[in-house]
Each structure stands twice: as structure tokens, then as C-alpha cells.
Write a structure and sequence with these properties.
The chain has a single domain (about 15-195, about 210-405), classed as Growth Hormone, Chain: A. It is built from 15 helices and no strands. It has helices at about 5-10, 15-45, 50-75, 80-95, 105-135, 140-165, 170-190, 210-220, 225-235, 240-255, 255-285, 285-305, 315-340, 345-375, 380-400.
Length: about 425
Amino acid sequence: MRLAPYVSLLRRNPDFTRLYVAQLASFAGDWFATVALLGLALEVTGSAGLAALVLALQTGGFAAASPLAGILADRIDRRRLLVATDLARVPVALLFLLANDSGTLWIAFGAVLLLAVGAAIFEPTSSASLPNLVEREDLPTANVLIGSAWGTMLALGAALGGIVAVTLGREAAFVVNALSFLISAALIVGIRRPLQEARQPAASRGFVLTDAIATAYRFVRPRRTAAAFLLTKTSFGIGTGIVALLAVFGRNVFSAGDAGIGLLFAARGLGALVGPFAARSLMGTDDRGLIRGIGWAFVTVAVCYAIFPLAPTILLAAGLVFLAHCGGGAQWTFSTLGLQRSTPDGIRGRVFSVDYGLVTLTIALSTLLAGFLADALAPQIAVWTMVALLAVAGAAWYAFSRPAMAEDPAPAVRLEDR
């Protein structure tokens, strides 16, 4: 794996570097808070279902806000939108300080939901902006770096978050989360390149929430390759309820407390960090390589998580989580790159809002199901059930996507199609 192209991009393009570091800061804070909050929920309630509800609210709130977020990303100055979203999340993140027992846990749940709305605006806007921030030939490299940013900070943020929660208290982790949004906003303010193309007349239509969904559907309907990339994350999301169970295994099954939760989530992040780099080297970045890589990612995740409940120690379990999320990180980066290349800037925000909205809705439902199964039956059975669902979804996605490997590039979308 050659690091020179990634280092070169960061040196040559200070605007991209600002966005990259901003996302590192924001993701680190998110995982500091998430690990602490999962530990709090399990400590005061003892319920895997309520711990799963934390992650379900994150993804469910994201899904609910996504249609409006996509319209905002296409019709408002994207740099100002990103900065405003970061600043609005600072006081919300501090609400976690008010939750310290079962009677006040609802405050944390409300804050999680509001932060999810902010993320629903920030993430599609950032993804839609990226092709305008780098040259076309640098886009695959930029995507690997941005994709690995989430994994990097999940690995470091989750591990350090667990340590900070144990040594300094959960309140310290919540404060770090709030500060991370301030750092992100300060970095994005300094970006000089425009994050979108010049406005077109058709972009001035009214704010209709169904616009994002209708636009994305019209765009992908005649384009199987674009549809395959749009459906990738959602197909993975069907089995992603497994992730909520990492908290249960870390704290309860392996009896390792908040530090155990942090270790398993850190292994997930390390896999998401390494996966995009390795997959790009092995599969390439043309559309056929992206689809093949995503197919192998399904296999990797399913096999590793099928073995995970049998691990005798938390260290072996963490190794399996790492390998699984090498696949998970690769599919996220590959599907994002495929959509960015195939979608014109004027509708890119709406297409990405639908992409993220679909996957977060699916993850929310999957997470609630996993939490219910863990409480009603056993965590091990819950994991195997989610693996089975993931395998079925992966097989269906590949059957749909395989013809796209022989598909000719689709004609560019016309302005009037928007």
C-alpha cells in the first residue's frame, strides 16, 4: 500500500486537508460520546434494548432528516451550511451532561436525536462537496482518505473514549464531543474553493420534501450501475444491527465494562480505516472493480461475524471485528466514490441524502431488532440472526448489480431531468 499519493494530496490541496481534519475532529468527538453513552445506558438500565436504542436514534433521526438535508445541500451555500450545522451541534452535545441516571436518560436520548439531524445535514453535504474540492483524478484518493477518517477516529475515539470515561468520567467525554464541533467549524470556515458549481435556474424550485427521493429515483432508474451503488449501503444496513451488540458483548458477555466497549468499537474503526486502502490496491477503482470489491466485502463481514460469538476472549473477538469492518469500510468508500463519479453536482446533494437516508433507516430498524433479540433470546443468537439477514441481502444485491459490470456508461443527466 503506497502512502505517497495520499500524503501528496494533503500537501497539494490545503482546502481538502481542512475538510479532512475537520471530519477527523468531529468523528473523534462523536465516538467519545457514543462509548460513554452506551456505557451509561447499560449501567443504569441493564437493557441491551435501550443500549441499542441509542444507536437506533442516531440512525433513525438521520434517516428522517435526510430528504430535507439533500435539498439544503443543493440549494444553499455548502460551506456556510456545514459551519452552521457544526455550531448548532455544540450546545446540543452539552445536554449529555444533564443525563446521569435512569430518570434523566431521556435527555440524552433527545440530544442523540438532535445530533443525528445535524449529521444528516453535514454528511451528505460533505460528500456532495468533495468532487468540487479536488481534481477528478484525485477523487479516488480523496475518498479513501475521507472514508478512512471515520475509521481512524472510531478506532482512536472509541478506544480513548472508553479510557477517558473510566478515568476522568463520562462528563469529560461529552465535553470533548462539543469541542470537536467547534474545531470542525473553525477549519471549514477557512476553505477557499467553492463547494458547489454555479447555481442553475432549475435549482430554485420550492422546498418539497419528496423532491430528493423523486430526483434520485429518476436519476438511477435507467442507470443500473448508479442504482447498484445507491443500494449498497442499504443492503449492508440490513445486518448492521450487529454493531449495537458490540456494547453488549464488551460490557456484559466479556465483562470488560466501558473499556471493553471501547476496545470492540476501536477494532471496528481500525478495520474501517485499513479496509479502503487495502481494497483500492486489490480491486482498483473502475466501476467493475468497485462492484467486485463490494461483493467480497459482504462475504468478509458475514463470515467474520458468524464466528464472532464463538470467540473465547475479547481480544480474539476484537480481531474478528477488525476483519469484518475492513470489508465494511471498503464497501462504504467504494459505493460513495461510485455515486460521486456518476452523479452531476446539481443533484448530488439530494442523491446522497437519499443514499444516507435509506441506509440509516435500515440500520435503525436492524439495530432495534438486534436489541430485541438480545434481550428476548441471547446476544449470540441475535448476532447469528443478523448475519443470516446480511447474507440474504448481500446475495440479492450482487444478483442485481452483476449485470452492471457489463453496462456502458450512462449519458449525463440533463438539467430538465432534475
